[in-house]
């Protein structure tokens, strides 16, 4: 009987916590944002029933940058109040603002949705905290290759549009480096843009003669003439209505009827699942610092049947209609 009890205890420790656990998720953005909704769903579906997920929204898609530090201070105060077993940091701003505050805490940290190379931050703020996580990279090369083949273009001429937020700036830098090393191999001619204002965004969409497609990256921090953030749905809807050429996307939340037509896209849910798996391993006894930082699982090719019909496009084999 004693042997059986020992086996049960060892097994339970290998698959999850034997006690109720608290996990604090600090979001860079806000819960209504499509990416956050998606990865939170992945986290919640992966964490055990005995895990309570607490959340704090830094709201950096909507608040001015001057407020980021005070938001991070509030997040740290919540960390002290909750005293979680594990902290999850969602996206670049949460990692950049929270790791300096958490570095000397005896805590395991799992990040997700990180576009920047986290090694510098992890080396600079290498205190007691133990850190691992999941990286996010727009699937530029695969997207351009498959779209070029679909359109039958020997040389695809593409405009890639992002806002000017932290994640967008990091993403365009990464894409720009990939483009310079792969442009001849991929057979593309790309213009990569960051825009701060809706007026500038509109002007670019309206001056796309000579391009085959527009790829809409991130568009959640586009501001009006008064400096207020424009509703992202409005930005995407306007772009869909006024573009004279097909739109494609890098993220799943941008694809659909009245949005972009499709793309090889990243899914927040898969990042949440992978981060959740890491949290479960930590709660079962592993330390975050012993778990390797990984790239997120490769994206999926999806399309809107309505938008493909509108642009008279034929979906490649393996692309999934989400309408």
Automatic annotation (TrEMBL):
Give the source's domain of life in one word.
Answer: Bacteria
The taxonomic lineage of its organism, from the top, reads: Bacteria, Pseudomonadati, Pseudomonadota, Gammaproteobacteria, Vibrionales
What this protein is called in its record is Sugar ABC transporter ATPase
InterPro entries cross-referenced by the UniProt entry: ABC_transpt-TYRBP-like
């Amino acid at each position: 009987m004693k042997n059986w009890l020992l086996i049960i205890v060892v097994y339970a420790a290998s698959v999850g916590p034997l006690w109720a656990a608290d996990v604090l998720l600090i979001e860079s953005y806000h819960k209504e944002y499509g990416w956050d909704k998606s990865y939170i769903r992945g986290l919640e579906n992966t964490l055990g029933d005995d895990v309570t997920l607490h959340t704090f929204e830094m709201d950096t898609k909507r608040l001015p940058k001057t407020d980021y530090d005070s938001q991070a201070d509030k997040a740290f105060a919540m960390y002290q109040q909750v005293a979680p077993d594990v902290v999850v940091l969602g996206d670049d701003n949460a990692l950049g603002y929270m790791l300096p505050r958490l570095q000397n805490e005896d805590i395991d940290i799992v990040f997700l949705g990180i576009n920047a190379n986290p090694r510098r931050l992890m080396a600079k703020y290498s205190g007691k905290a133990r850190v691992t996580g999941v990286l996010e990279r727009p699937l530029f090369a695969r997207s351009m290759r498959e779209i070029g083949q679909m359109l039958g273009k020997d040389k695809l001429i593409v405009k890639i549009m992002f806002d000017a937020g932290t994640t967008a700036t990091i993403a365009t830098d990464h894409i720009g480096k990939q483009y310079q090393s792969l442009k001849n191999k991929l057979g593309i001619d790309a213009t990569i843009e960051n825009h701060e204002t809706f007026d500038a965004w509109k002007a670019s969409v309206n001056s796309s003669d000579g391009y085959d497609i527009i790829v809409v990256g991130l568009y959640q921090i586009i501001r009006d003439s008064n400096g207020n953030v424009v509703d992202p749905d409005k930005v995407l809807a306007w772009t869909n209505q006024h573009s004279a050429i097909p739109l494609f996307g890098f993220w799943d939340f941008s694809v659909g009827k009245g949005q972009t037509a499709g793309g090889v896209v990243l899914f927040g849910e898969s990042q949440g699942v992978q981060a959740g798996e890491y949290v479960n391993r930590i709660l079962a006894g592993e330390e975050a610092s012993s778990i390797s930082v990984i790239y997120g699982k490769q994206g999926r090719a999806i399309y809107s049947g309505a938008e493909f019909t509108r642009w008279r496009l034929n979906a490649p084999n393996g692309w999934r209609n989400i309408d």
